[in-house]
Specification:
The protein is an alpha/beta fold. It has a single domain, classed as Class I glutamine amidotransferase (GATase) domain (Rossmann fold, 3-Layer(aba) Sandwich), CATH 3.40.50. Helix content is about 35%, strand content about 20%. The chain is built from seven helices and eleven strands. A seven-stranded mixed sheet has the order 5-2-1-6-7-11-10, sandwiched between helices. Helix 1 runs parallel beside helix 6 and helix 6 packs across helix 7. The protein is globular, with a radius of gyration of 16 Å. InterPro entries: Class_I_gatase-like, DJ-1/PfpI, INH-QAR. Pfam families: DJ-1_PfpI (PF01965). This is Putative transcription regulator, AraC family protein.
Length: about 200
């Protein structure tokens, strides 16, 4: 039986927060279907989503018609600001926590998890510019300021933007093994060497 990974989309989502993990995870699921995973994008109502910098992307499914998820990826971006005060959104996130075995976030997506109460008394991270906001939302969070991503078992939070790629490769390592993650890393030629 196929296991489902859902990447959440919303207006104002940071492009790379969503598309980076999509690239990693969809490369994996397309090249290794026998591993038993599928990935899709979900949004509140389905349909097109306007990202933070103007890219328009199409969600595959709405929240209501998405398959049961085994992994949820919640990106960040400027669109998170209204979501941390959106009771309907936060309640949806809490309902996912009740049924989804592994919740992950990228960048300020962890702020949504914090606002929903998912990170209470747990280690977590977010984009460097929002680390204090994470503490403000829930002072019990053990904020990891220097870590690229934090794996706390059933919740993984990644720091800013490009860290979603690292987190997605780590996710493959957890779900299908280190060798598979290395194959995908090589295939997408992800070997950061900053120019400055």
């Amino acid at each position: 039986m196929t296991k489902n990974i859902g990447i959440v989309l919303f207006d104002g989502v940071e492009e790379l927060d969503a598309i980076g993990p999509w690239e990693v995870l969809s490369t994996w699921t397309h090249h290794f279907p026998d591993d038993g995973y599928a990935v899709s994008c979900v949004s509140r109502s389905g349909g097109p989503v306007l990202c933070a910098k103007g890219l328009v992307v199409q969600a595959h499914r709405s929240f209501d018609d998405a398959p049961p998820l085994d992994v949820l990826v919640h990106p960040g971006g400027h669109g998170v600001r209204p979501l941390v005060q959106d009771d309907d959104w936060l309640n949806w996130v809490r309902r996912q926590r009740d049924v989804v075995p592994l919740m992950t976030s990228v960048c300020t997506g962890s702020l949504v998890y914090a606002a929903a109460g998912l990170l209470s008394h747990r280690p977590a991270t977010t984009h460097w510019a929002s680390l204090d906001w994470l503490t403000t939302l829930d002072p019990t969070i053990d904020v990891r300021r220097e870590e690229r991503f934090v794996d706390d078992g059933d919740i993984i939070t990644a720091s800013g933007v490009s860290a979603g790629i690292d987190m997605a490769l780590h996710l493959i390592s957890r779900l299908a093994g280190v060798d598979r993650a290395r194959e995908i890393r090589r295939y997408i030629q992800y070997d950061p060497a900053p120019p400055v």
